[in-house]
Amino acid sequence: MTHQFITCETSEGVTTLTLNRPEVLNSFNTPMSAEVLAALAAADMDPRVRAVLLTGAGRGFCAGQDLAEVTAGKGGPAPDFAAHVRTVFNPMVRGIRQLEKPVVCAVNGVAAGAGASLALACDFVIAASSASFIQAFSKIGLVPDSGATYFLPRLVGLARATSMMMLAEKVTAAQALEYGMIYRVAEPETLMDEARRFAASLAAQATVGLGLTKRLLNASLSSDLDSQLELEARLQAEAARTTDHVEGIAAFQQKRAPRFEGR
Ligand code: T3D
């Protein structure tokens, strides 16, 4: 499939998806979001793909909605923001959370607005020490979207989420790590190597088990203990039927590293 606004390549079981509009800090126009969605769907369908790496080209990760596309203040008919959020941003967030393969986000620079939301929806965020996160919405009179109000309070607590969202202050990568928003910080020069190696190591794990773990974590965000215990029991039975479980046990007994095939 050819892409105009992203690049997409697969090696070592990892699909690397790069947002590629560096001149506008990879902000989202509608076609770019459609390309991201199609690439996530392709990664989902392809059994050779066992992890996804999301990053941005140039000095920024993603500055959220492309404000040149927004017609407010330019006269003309009022845009249907609800429809836009439902059709452009929400499907990408669902695409990341429902993909039962690990998604690593390498935040190479500023992540603002829906760009920050998208990073927070990923399973692992590795940020360059020079990167930052800005809940930029309030600066333009909008509300946080693309799952920000769902993920951020759960990651950092209500007080910090409130201040980030109402004050739109820049959160550095070091602060994001300290607050529990992200997984790791890397030096800018080594970010992509580290992120690729990390994604490849995830791709070599028991993919079905990781996918079912993601389903459990998704459910746990809005579940009660009894429901969660029951879901764990059901999904454990599913994981136990995989070839990778048999291989994991064999490797343990033979005191060797497992060779997981992702099934
Ligand atoms: O429509 C709906 O569905 C509503 C949904 C909304 C979801 C959202 O994401 S709302 C939030 C939208 N994003 C923003 O408000 C962030 C806007 N950008 C910024 O505040 C700053 O650019 C940054 C803090 C992210 C980075 O600042 P800085 O100083 O490093 O870079 P810069 O000079 O501002 O930007 C560099 C270029 O990118 C610049 O273009 P130029 O002057 O070199 O030709 C700038 O205009 C462009 N750019 C940055 N962000 C956007 C953008 N162009 C279009 N849309 C952007 N979001």
Walk me through this protein's architecture.
- The chain is of the alpha/beta class.
- 46% of the residues lie in helices and 16% in strands.
- It has helices at residues 30-45, 81-98, 114-121, 148-156, 158-167, 173-179, 191-203, 207-220, 225-240, 243-253, and strands spanning 6-11, 14-19, 51-56, 60-62, 103-107, 110-112, 124-128, 132-134, 171-172, 184-186.
- A six-stranded mixed beta sheet has the order 1-2-3-5-7-10, sandwiched between helices. The chain has a four-stranded mixed beta sheet with strand order 4-6-8-9.
- It binds ligand T3D.
- Residues 24-25, 27, 63-68, 70, 81, 84-85, 110, 112-114, 134, 136-137, 140, 142, 145 line the site of ligand T3D.
- The site of ligand T3D has 23 residues, from helix 2 and strand 6.
Could you write a compact summary of the structure shown?
The chain contains ten helices and ten strands. With 263 residues, it is an alpha/beta fold. Strand 1 (6-11) and strand 2 (14-19) form a beta hairpin.
Would you count the extended β strands for me? 10
H/E topology pattern: EEHEEHEEHEEHHEHEHHHH
Integer-rounded radius of gyration: 19 Å
How far do the termini sit from each other? 26 Å
Largest sheet entry: 6 strands, mixed
Shape: globular
Based on the structure given, which CATH architecture of the largest domain is correct? Alpha-Beta Complex
CATH superfamily of the largest domain: 2-enoyl-CoA Hydratase, Chain A, domain 1
Helical fraction equals 40-55%
Return the structural class: alpha/beta
The count of helical stretches stands at: 10
Which strand order does the major sheet show? Answer: 1-2-3-5-7-10
Fraction in beta strands: 15-25%
